[in-house]
Design brief:
It contains 14 helices and two strands, in the order ααββαααααααααααα.
Length: about 425
């Protein structure tokens, strides 16, 4: 065995394992969102996660991957790789094309799961399936090509987004905002007199376990983006990831104590996630101290953004926009400020790099935000012509678990159910 064969083998194992860690994050999304929504909609959350994984993987295999990572056409789109065929010689050579696809597939599934939370408790299941196809097959792959293809037009300008604060989280966050606005608030969320009615989470321990799974998977998200088991930066990436998430969580604990006179559990959970989102773009390029600052700022701004949305009667049941859209924006711009000399193609403003990188990061962020919001709005409008995107009032009041899926999340029966009772008369 040649040394190069051994190196490629290690890289393959590394990428497959980290891809599996990212896929495990779907369990985190399922538990987090099911814990944040009301009990009558927990099954609906789980079913949407299964849609994310199954439809997302299939659509991305058939054409999404090609549009994102296929051979470049004018910096705008890929044209090879449909069904993993055609010319893919431009892809990384240290792992197989199949291995590279698996890692990228894990990313696309995470994107659509962000939108799922903002649309929770009121989007129709069939409409969600169609939107999942659009997001995983068109919206994310095309903008992802701009950023991550070596010849993508934003990449050629010098945009840096190591693991996806913009390409994944800001895109998903602004798409989530569009979905929340399009669907409108849940029934009873806001009173006619402007009063805000709190919807208590159904199971905070469940949501916290979901957050811990996401936290674990994020090490695959960020460190795995090296695509190499021998990359010397893996340790630093893991450390900045840990510090930023801890800072986001700690900042939310202290900030909510000062603001509300008590630590707010949902905000603290989302604070850890905000720190993770914020560091994703620059985890390989910023110092430990910058990672702590990015995480802390992301956590605090996430709280303020959640309050701002609530005042404007934008109903986002799990805080998807505040966590992913806002923190993803902060993380994207932070690269333009804190990128270390020699770590990235351009240094950040605070390290003598001037305004160029910050300007490119801001441009890329604006493009991704408009693309994610605009295309989601258009997609939902088009789907609404086929069937209502939002469930009926009766279905929403009963809960989507029973009205759409025909089964509650938690059975009230203490024993077995007789088969005859399930049969129609």
């Amino acid at each position: 065995m040649q040394l190069s064969d051994l190196s490629n083998g290690l890289d393959t194992v590394w990428v497959v394992l980290t891809a599996a860690m990212i896929l495990l994050m779907e369990g985190g999304f399922a538990l987090l969102e099911a814990g944040f929504v009301r009990q009558k909609n927990a099954v609906s959350i789980i079913m949407k996660v299964f849609v994310d994984i199954s439809f997302g993987a299939l659509i991305y295999y058939v054409f999404g991957f090609a549009l994102m990572h296929g051979k470049d056409a004018g910096g705008l789109i890929g044209l090879t790789g449909f069904n993993m065929g055609g010319d893919l010689t431009h892809l990384p050579a240290n792992v197989s094309h199949d291995t590279f696809w698996l890692f990228q597939c894990a990313f696309v599934i995470a994107v659509i799961s962000i939108v799922s939370g903002a649309a929770a408790e009121r989007i129709h299941f069939r409409a969600y399936i169609v939107y999942t196809i659009v997001m995983t097959g068109l919206i994310y792959p095309i903008s992802g090509h701009w950023i991550w293809s070596p010849n993508g037009w934003l990449a050629k300008l010098g945009m840096i987004d190591f693991a996806g604060s913009a390409a994944i989280h800001a895109l998903g966050g602004f798409a989530a905002l569009a979905a929340a606005l399009f669907l409108g608030p849940r029934l009873g969320r806001y009173g006619a007199d402007g009063k805000v009615n709190i919807v208590p989470p159904s199971n905070l321990p469940l949501a916290s376990v979901g957050a811990f799974i996401l936290w674990f998977g994020w090490f695959g998200f960020n460190s795995g983006s090296t695509l190499s088991a021998t990359n010397p930066g893996i340790g630093h990436i893991a450390v900045t990831t840990m510090l930023a998430s801890a800072a986001g969580c700690a900042a939310c604990i202290l900030f909510t104590i000062l603001r509300y006179q008590k630590a707010d559990p949902p905000m603290v959970i989302n604070g850890a996630l905000a720190g993770l989102v914020g560091i994703t773009a620059g985890c390989a390029f910023v110092s430990d101290g910058a990672a702590i600052l990015i995480g802390a700022v992301s956590g605090i701004v996430m709280v303020l953004a959640s309050e701002w949305l609530e005042k404007r009667k934008v109903d986002d049941p799990v805080g998807a926009f505040a966590v992913h859209g806002i923190s993803g924006s902060i993380g994207t711009l932070a690269v333009g400020l804190f990128a270390l000399p020699g770590a990235a193609s351009h240094s950040g403003l605070f390290y003598g790099g001037g305004w160029h990188l910050l300007g490119v990061q801001a441009l890329g962020l604006a493009v991704v935000a408009v693309w994610g919001f605009g295309l989601t709005w258009i997609a939902l409008k088009a789907i609404n012509l086929w069937r209502p995107v939002r469930v009926s009032s009766d279905e929403e009041l009963v809960g989507l678990d029973v009205s759409i899926h025909g089964v509650p999340a938690y059975s009230r029966e203490h024993d077995f159910i007789e088969v005859d009772k399930l049969r129609a008369p």
